[in-house]
Fold these 3 entries.
Entry 1:
Amino acid sequence: MNSMEADEMAALVAVLETGSFAAAGRQLGRDSSVISRRLKALETRLGTRLVERSTRRLSPTDAGQRLRERVQEAMQLIHNGEEEARSLSASPIGLLRLTLPTGFGRRWIAPRLPEFLARYPSLDLETVFTDRFVDLIAERFDAGVRIGRLEDSRLVARQVLTMRRLLCASPAYLKAHPPIRHPRDLAQHACIGFSPMASHPVWHLSRDGKQHAVRTRSRLATDDIDALMHAALQGTGVAYCADWIVANELREKRLVEVLPAWQVVGDETMHVIRASAQYTPAKVRAFVDWMTEEFQHLAWPSKAP
């Protein structure tokens, strides 16, 4: 399409949007006679009438309406392409609004955000820590981090981690109580459950392709990771939780993994999510890439995809 043909298409869309040559001319910054000539030239070139002319208002014929829709679709594609190209070359800038899971966000993401901001000095950040379901689109968040199943098909998601579930206890607790060599031994122990994930009172473990279910006694079930961790550290019992909750304590040997040869059934995934769109703003792409990079190297047994 040459520039003259593009001008003719623009004239058609403007005439049908505004309903008159004068208004279309004002929209395009041209005299109404120029708009009229361009529309006439387009009709002549296509060999069909595109606009019904009346004293009150200009209205589309069927052919004119169909062409208008196609031109608008093409213009939107061009606009999206320009925005995408601009976002690829532009530096992250402006306000980035994020929603983050409370426990994981406070423990692992929040301490790293100053480094993220230092990397992008033109970027400002607003974070909301919550475990409720957040509608990114309705609440105008740019992106978020979500643990567990994704249910909103409107979202674009990148998996960052697979989080392993495990059992652990303090060395003092294990020393003072009977040894745990098999899942069935857990029935004789006090247990601590992380209620957002624990299928208490029955815990499921697997080994060599075989599953074993054991009914446990939960001395404490909580949705707070600090309460769970402190209870485990103080010898309350055997804790059921995700590896990220106790990663530091395991590394420092203040907690010990129980039944490490067994797999606690029910790994969970963590995704960075954003609203589906034709292009990704540079600020959102920067956060998604940073999260992927940052959490591939954490010192715990979770696996990056």
Entry 2:
Amino acid sequence: MEVVIVEAMDPALPGIGGGETYSLNLLQYLIKIGVPTVFIGSSTSNSQSTQSSFTFVPVTHKASLSNLGFVLRLMATRSFASVPPGAIVHVQRPEYALPFVLFCRRNPKVITLHGRILHGVRLKQPRVVAWIYRMVESFCLRHSSAVIAVDEGTKGFYEKEYPWLRKRIRVIPIGIDLAKFRVLGRAKSRAKWGFKSSQKIVIYVGRLEIEKDLGFLIESFRMVVRQVPEARLVLVGDGRDRKRLEEMAKDMGLEEVLFIGAQQPDSVPEILNCADVLALCSLFEGSPTTVKEALACGVPVVTTPVGDVARVVRDNINGRIVPKDTEKFSRAIIEILLSEDMASVRRQCVKGATAFGFDQIGERTVDLYKKLLT
């Protein structure tokens, strides 16, 4: 068995997005179990490199590239020529499969759907662009060997959109690196990142994009800080919505909202360990990695009912799942910040995260690969 992973990232310098985390964890798992692996992605270096443990084929050296731009680079660099005969090609967005559908017809192709991608395109792009995207997505999905949805909601969305997909799609949730995301010294982490021991830290980790609905979070936090003056909202990440959100917080007079930008993935466990609660309020999600990572660090979660969070967050045990209402959302955050039994809550968080170690998820993915090769 050989596997080719395709994702618009540099495995040496991954971001904090769910797809990138998934790809890196999958790569590390395949290396661990001895599966020869090729990674086709992007790089900040200037040459194709063969690592001691996997082959890396960069198709671009641009730090930031649109999804369409990445597909065009896959075509222009003839990345498909790097695919060994019989190898499984595993892509992280439907359109990334296009060059391999066209030029690697005999290779099994697996597409992972990290949420309702088509819905996001319809939300952010003009109608004609969304129509063209759907045509490409449909073509790639139809010519795939297997499709993985990271949660039941995503599976249901695509089955409704493409009824012929029902026999080919299955759910395998996202796993996390439990050796990396764990409880660390909280006082030491706070001192390193400049947070006071008396502060109550509400944290968000992820992209600052319109579908994350962070304006809702800032509005909710305004109600939190009125009752908990020592509260701080820390937004970890970057994106196209950052400027608007910064202006929004400024207009509200919320100096307690801190934008610390994108951070190296190795720093994220430390930052999470500074937090008292993680907040998530996206318009849609698949299997949000950050929820599981926060729990593994002993941080309870307040979230709206998106993606597979109901499988992960146990209401009033390791967090709260609340409707999309600023008053209810802020109240849930306040209740956790002022809880007198945080030690017990943190233990429940860690306990709840143990089922989502990537070894279990990786094993299910490899089992799928084996079935495609038989």
Entry 3:
Amino acid sequence: MKTLFLIARTHLLSRLKQTIVAVLGVTFGIGTFIFLISITTGSNDFFVDVTLNNSPHIHIYNDIQTDRASVLDLAQEGEAYANVVRHQRPRQTKPNLKDGMRIVELLRQDPRVYDVAPQVSSQVFFQYGPVNINGTITGVEVEAENRLFDLGEKIVAGDMNALPAAYNGVIMGSGLAKKLNVGVGDRVNITTPRGSTLLLTVVALFRTGLIDLDNQQSYATLATVQKILEEPNSYITDIKLKLNEMDRARTIATEYAQQFGYTAKDWQTANAALEANLRVNNIIIYGVVVAILFVAGFGIFNILTMMIYEKMKDIAILKAMGFSGGDIRRIFLIEAVSIGIVGALFGLVFGFVSSYAMSLVPFENDIMVQMDHLPVNFKLSFYISGLVFGLLTTTIAGYSPSRRAARIDPVEIIRG
């Protein structure tokens, strides 16, 4: 076996330039795979973490459906009179959960539930001087909101704990505050769809990293929002909760919808578009890497094929000396695998160095508070996959030429 390795090494060194090109092809393919998969999964994991950190595992709400029944349907059959109806108005329906607080108490007793946050949410107009902006105000229990969504970690100015004690206080999204040109301590007028107005004091600013949320969302206490909407203390529009096992959200959401008679949307359904987008991104990345490694494998195939044509006399002499067809096949497979091993190892180093260098590049912005550098994932499984993928590609690329070399008839070659 040692002799086979020596012969394979001699072949590779005799065509050093072609060997280097083949090694560089594998190196580039594996390095690109490591770099792309590290950047892609790092970014994907970051966006998923940001999204899930701001999303409940289950959201229970009253999904109001427009009443499509016409008053004409109420007309008695057989009556001989004409009915003319124009622009029938939908029935006035409130979006609240009729027994919301009772549901909250039942959910808090469920051992599968980590915590529950009742909310009152409404569209409002924010006014500061001449500026009027449409947004959302959500009444919350501050402690529950912090336990579920880490609200305190997202505060960039002011103090979250000042909200319960403040009279008509509000925590405002940083993007919304920037549009209104307000800061902590400023007072902002809000107007509800019914025309009610209230003057609120900004006690803190938050930033989640989600543009739409930061540009529209604000938080006040449950009592404050209920007062704005002129509703009683039992008025609840949303219940958001997190589970001890988030993977069971879909099954439990279906159970809650049947039990309470309201819409219960799990996090997988709510973020289906994000999940599909990430899946497409991964398919594209793997497709690009497979194409690169295919090109590298094709290069190895060509190099070994040319080497066989150039070394036909050597192969014939080896067979005449007693080397079997299996020995010849193993020689060229050793050459292919050697190119794969060297190229893959260099590729792993190249991929790690390029990924690490990218992770050091500053990526500061005013959108994502948690990101000051590009997120990169350094999972060991990526490097193992890259090594296996590189060796598999080069072995497959070298198999056909090695079989061809093993079938060479030494008598025909020596006779010329």
